[in-house]
Write a structure and sequence with these properties.
This protein is of the alpha+beta class. The protein folds into three domains: 9-109; 123-180; 213-314, Nuclear Transport Factor 2, Chain: A, CATH 3.10.450. 42% of the residues lie in helices and 14% in strands. The protein contains nine helices and seven strands, in the order H-H-H-H-H-E-H-H-E-E-E-H-H-E-E-E. The protein has a three-stranded antiparallel β-sheet with strand order 5-6-7, covered by helices on one side. The protein has a two-stranded antiparallel ribbon with strand order 1-2. A hairpin with a 4-residue loop joins strand 6 (296-305) and strand 7 (310-314). Helix 2 crosses helix 3 and helix 3 (54-76) runs antiparallel to helix 4. It is flat.
Length: 315
């Protein structure tokens, strides 16, 4: 993305003289990066099997360093910029810096299963020999520390161009494996915008349901309180509460009454399970009791979270 410019070459020249930095060359390099290198970086994070273009990542890092230099120089000489077109260029340079930072955090905003710095060397190659009665699935699990050997053996087979006749129960076939050297795997969650998730970070961070301000900023919840708030919102969600998905939630007709038929019981359970399933930080949802009290629907339930938190509650 190239922003609309509200300045001319005279302004660029004057800026460069004041800062003693060639702004025009910097912007030319920025345009070159955005046109040629940014797509390669985004493609790497979007596609699971894409190979990183290390030159593009190196280029990005250098551009970010230069953007910081320019930002620091502007701070030092800020009293020199008092013309209207100065502010146009200042805004443009700030947009460039923000855009570079956005590309640098593409892993997070694209919710990629790849970590931000995974373009750097993340695996080593080595050969492994199939033993007697050993399958490619076995070798994936035993030698590659695969978390999903039932599916990863297919990738190993394709990468080694293995045919069924190339290996048998006698063993002896040699295959090349890629072993990850990362300290831990990334976890992909649709409901959390982040790329490096571990521990309570799996819950994400949300703002307080009833918006409040603290120290001139919107108050946010802790990781644990975020998941508790999410559950409390989902469990009382009624159809029509979400304008984009009007059928999402419990049918309001079942929320009031005096008795619970087998049909109502089934539909309430079915609808609640669908709602809870929409949040992949939650699991093992079980309704232990459904009843009416004072003409209102009461539900007792148990639910686990992805990071070992079990809740028993009533809605």
């Amino acid at each position: 993305m190239i922003f609309e410019a509200n300045f001319d070459m005279d302004t660029l020249s004057r800026f460069s003289t004041t800062l003693r930095y060639n702004i025009a060359t910097y912007l030319d390099l920025y345009r070159l990066f955005m046109n040629n290198n940014q797509p390669l970086i985004l493609s790497y994070f979007k596609n699971q099997v894409a190979i990183p273009d290390t030159l593009s990542f190196d280029f990005l890092n250098k551009m970010i360093i230069e953007a910081k230099k320019i930002n620091n120089l502007i701070t030092v000489h800020e009293s020199s910029f008092d013309r209207v077109d100065d502010w146009g260029l200042l805004e443009f340079l700030e947009n460039v810096r923000i855009k570079l930072d956005t590309v640098n955090n593409a892993a997070k905003w694209l919710k990629s299963s790849k970590a931000k710095n995974s373009w750097q060397k993340t695996s080593i190659q080595f050969n492994a020999t199939l033993g007697v009665d050993e399958t490619v699935e076995d070798i994936s699990k035993n030698n590659n520390n695969s978390l999903d050997p039932q599916n990863n053996w297919v990738q190993i087979t394709l990468e080694n161009n293995l045919l069924e006749k190339d290996y048998d129960t006698q063993g002896g076939a040699v295959v090349q494996l890629n072993k990850s050297i990362l300290s831990k795997p990334n976890i992909y969650l649709n409901s959390v915008v982040d790329s490096e998730l571990s521990g309570e970070k799996l819950y994400g961070i949300d703002i307080v349901r009833k918006i409040q301000w603290t120290n001139n900023d919107i108050q946010t919840l802790s990781y644990k309180d975020t998941v508790l708030q999410s559950i409390n919102i989902l469990i009382v969600l009624r159809q029509g509460d979400v304008p984009e998905f009007l059928s999402f939630g419990v049918d309001p007709r079942f929320a009031v009454g005096n008795n619970l038929s087998i049909f109502k019981n089934f539909k309430v359970r079915q609808q609640l399970e669908a709602v809870i399933a929409s949040d992949d930080t939650l699991r093992n949802f079980q309704i232990t009791s459904i009843s009416y009290y004072n003409s209102k629907l009461n539900i007792e339930y148990n639910i686990d979270t992805l990071y070992d938190l079990t809740l028993n509650n009533v809605a």
